[in-house]
Amino acid sequence: MIACALWWSYFDWTVFVAQARLVEAQGIERAALARDLFSYLHLPMVAGIVLSAFGLKTTLAHVDDVLEIVPAVGLCGGLALYFAAHVAERLRIGGGWGHGRPAATVVLVVLIPIATVVPSLVALALAAAVCVALIAYERLRYPYARAWIRSHRGAFTMEEAARITPRRGDAPTDDRISTDRSP
To answer: How many CB atoms are located within 10 Å of the residue 95 CB?
Structure first.
């Protein structure tokens, strides 16, 4: 479930917004943006995945035991690092902090000491619940924006995306955005 949530959180809409921002950038700005998005900010994402996999492996090997601090940091801290990198990526492309991913990052960091006093299977369930809650929040909070971003697969301007994303769930009216753009 955690692996699915990590995949979803990246490939649902994030990758398309980053692609659109990269297409808009020119010259030195584009090179710096590509470096930052696909090197510097992917490194903590990958490190977070590796750390959480280590924590997950330890958890599944000792489901009745409490986690030591290192596996607890691996499980919860790795997931927090992954989502923190998403927040940093969003900030780098000019999208602001957002709500769900910063909150999930904080909750996962708070779960680290909790994971050292509850059975490891409970710690895993709590970490998975945070990941699932994040995906559910984004799915319910921004259904139209997510669908619109995915349907355009990066072929939109950041101005168009900015007009779409503040909407809570309804489709924008015709005067807010043109839908007849050709890719």
So the answer is: 18
Give mean pLDDT, residues 42-56.
95
d(CA 177, CA 164): 8
Block residue for tokens 């503040």:
166
Give the type of residue at 144.
Y
**What pLDDT score does 112 carry?**
97
Judged against a pLDDT cut of 50, whether residue 87 lies above it is answered with yes
The share of the chain scoring above pLDDT 70, in percent, equals: 85
pLDDT of 113 > 90? The answer is: yes
Q: Are 22 and 37 in contact (CB under 8 A)?
A: yes
